[in-house]
Design a protein that fits this description.
Layout (H helix, E strand, L loop, with lengths): L2 E2 L1 E4 L15 H14 L3 E5 L5 H13 L4 E7 L2 H10 L6 E8 L2 H8 L3 H16 L5 E6 L6 H14 L3 E6 L6 H14 L7 E6 L6 H10 L4 E4 L13 H10 L6 E2 L7 H12 L20 H9 L27 H10 L7 H15 L7 H16 L3 E9 L7 E8 L2 E8 L3 H13 L4 E9 L8 E9 L2 E9 L2 H17 L15
Parallel strand pairs: 1-10, 2-3, 2-9, 3-4, 4-5, 5-6, 6-7, 7-8, 8-9
Antiparallel strand pairs: 11-12, 12-13, 14-15, 15-16
Helix pairs in contact: 1-2, 1-10, 2-3, 5-6, 7-8, 10-14, 13-14, 15-16
């Protein structure tokens, strides 16, 4: 009989630690509902002690989700653990995930603690967490570079203290698959009470092996994988949920376990996360990339026509690629619009919000013939972005781009309710528009990234623009969508400036831990 492989999604926590990937509370709830629809077992909703905003987001997810377990991350600090306990209180099923570093370099250089002190703190943290919930997960941070003997001591002790899940993180993506799988096998063999806990893995992708390391761990007895949608995450990212799930599902000849994931929800969830975070999925990305099931070679095309399995090891429909979607247009009514939003599990807060979104839908339908699901997702995201933008609003934008002439832009913004105007030239219409906006707001930001992606196919497709800005070491993303790329660019730039103006400083979960 096949074992159950638990999927622990940390898109809302570790994924959000990607520079510029911060999400609003409502955006986190939208993603959480999609993760629930995907049938993710555990949703790590955030790091409640980081800020009031993070606390509120975790609590909102706990209130919104009922079928998945909601988890919060906490350092081995009393305030962190109590913050998680309070944030996850409304959840139907909950978990506290606490951690402390166990590698020599982390203990000596970051924590300034001896191994015995770390062991004592780990046990104390698990016991405290157990006062609030019977589901506690413990992680020895940087386990991939920790001494195996010390790992065994710590893990045995925290299992005795009440930890039901032991997560082994390759925090800096240092391990190779054979090495990491061997570590899991060693721990399961050497720790006397290993059978009283589920062993989990959390792998980073610094050397491009997060998925390979995770799968090697599963083959060696791990029964929970911590991963993110699209592999989003700190630095080079985390193990990609879609790749782990489909590798296990496709290679049942090797894996004596399987997940309960509804794989048909993989692509819709991937697109939602990409849309909200502004982190585009590369075309050749496994499973969810636009080219993942495309065949250009004549030999491949001939083989697929004759027998799909000659060149496809998965069915595109099984992961959510489907052309059987309801297409809306300018003649579609409010009921069809509302129905399709409900089918996509998009919930608007009020009738007023629905009316506003429907008005945007009608406006978009006048610009492009067919409205697809991706357009609706972008439309709702755009609506939430505009509602969040209180200080800066685009009133008018006029650009001129002509062969042999210097491009120019005339921009009128509403700044705190006052209309302000500027005209500038630039290397192109987008550059000119950004310069005109800067002439009004004088932000002092540095542009790190400007990216344009089409939401659907066709020349009338909406363009989705991501802008990444930096100022004084702080990095934010801004998003905008429109059938006019220049307007979408201006919206994205204003959204990033609005986010930059709000103090969203967060306590990073890997900062030096303070005494109890």
């Amino acid at each position: 009989m096949s074992d159950s492989l638990i999927i622990f999604d940390t898109t809302l926590r570790d994924g959000e630690q990607s520079p510029g990937a911060s999400m609003t509370r409502d955006e986190k709830v939208r993603i959480a509902r999609n993760l629930e629809r995907l049938r993710v077992d555990v949703i790590e909703a955030g790091f409640p002690a980081a800020s009031q905003g993070d606390f509120d987001s975790v609590r909102a997810v706990a209130e919104a989700v009922s079928e998945s377990r909601v988890c919060g991350l906490a350092r081995a600090i009393e305030g962190d653990i109590k913050a998680v306990a309070n944030a996850i209180k409304p959840a139907a099923m909950s978990r506290i995930h606490t951690f402390i570093a166990t590698s020599p370099i982390h203990m000596q250089e970051k924590l300034r603690m001896s191994p015995d002190e770390v062991l004592e703190r780990a046990v104390w943290a698990v016991k405290l967490a157990r006062e609030f919930t019977d589901d506690v997960e413990f992680s020895p941070e940087d386990a991939g570079r920790s001494d195996p003997d010390f790992l065994c001591r710590v893990i045995e002790a925290v299992i005795d203290a009440g930890a039901g899940t032991i997560n082994i993180p390759d925090t800096v993506g240092y391990n190779l698959p054979g090495q990491f799988g061997g570590l899991i096998a060693t721990l399961l063999e050497r720790i006397p009470n290993a059978d009283k806990a589920i062993f989990s893995v959390h792998c980073h992708n610094d050397l491009g092996m997060a998925v390979a390391n995770s799968l090697s761990a599963v083959l060696n007895g791990a029964r929970q994988v911590e991963c993110t949608i699209n592999g989003l995450g700190e630095r080079a990212g985390n193990a990609a949920l879609e790749e782990v799930v489909m590798a296990v599902r496709t290679r049942q000849d090797l894996f004596n376990c399987d997940t309960r994931i509804d794989t048909t929800q993989i692509v819709p969830t991937s697109r939602l996360v990409s849309n909200i975070t502004g982190f585009a999925v590369q075309p050749n990305k496994a499973v969810v990339g636009a080219n993942a099931f495309a065949h250009e070679s004549g030999i491949h095309q001939d083989g697929v026509i004759k027998k799909r399995e000659t060149y496809e090891i998965m069915r595109a429909e099984d992961v959510g690629w489907s052309h059987n979607r309801m297409v809306l247009g300018k003649h579609s009514g409010r009921n069809a619009f509302r129905t399709r939003l409900a089918e996509l599990d998009i919930q608007l807060e009020s009738e007023t919000a629905l009316n506003s979104a429907f008005a945007r839908f009608k406006e978009l339908a006048d610009k492009k013939h067919e409205i697809f699901d991706e357009d609706l997702q972008a439309l709702v995201t755009e609506e939430s972005l505009e509602q969040a933008t209180e200080k800066l609003k685009l009133v008018t934008l006029k650009v001129c781009s002509e062969t042999g002439e210097t491009p120019s832009a005339d921009v009128t913004l509403s700044v705190d309710g006052v209309d302000m105007h500027a005209s500038m030239t630039g290397g192109g219409p987008v550059d000119a528009a950004f310069r005109a906006i800067d002439a009004i707001v004088d932000s002092g930001c540095n542009l790190l990234l400007y990216s344009v992606n089409n939401i659907t196919t066709g020349t009338d497709s909406q363009g989705e623009v991501t802008v990444r800005l930096e100022k004084d070491g702080r990095i934010v993303n801004g998003n905008g969508a429109d059938t006019d790329i220049v307007i979408a660019s201006a919206k994205a730039y204003l959204n990033a400036l609005e986010r930059m103006s709000v103090d969203l400083r967060r306590a990073h979960p890997q900062v030096t831990q303070q005494p109890i």
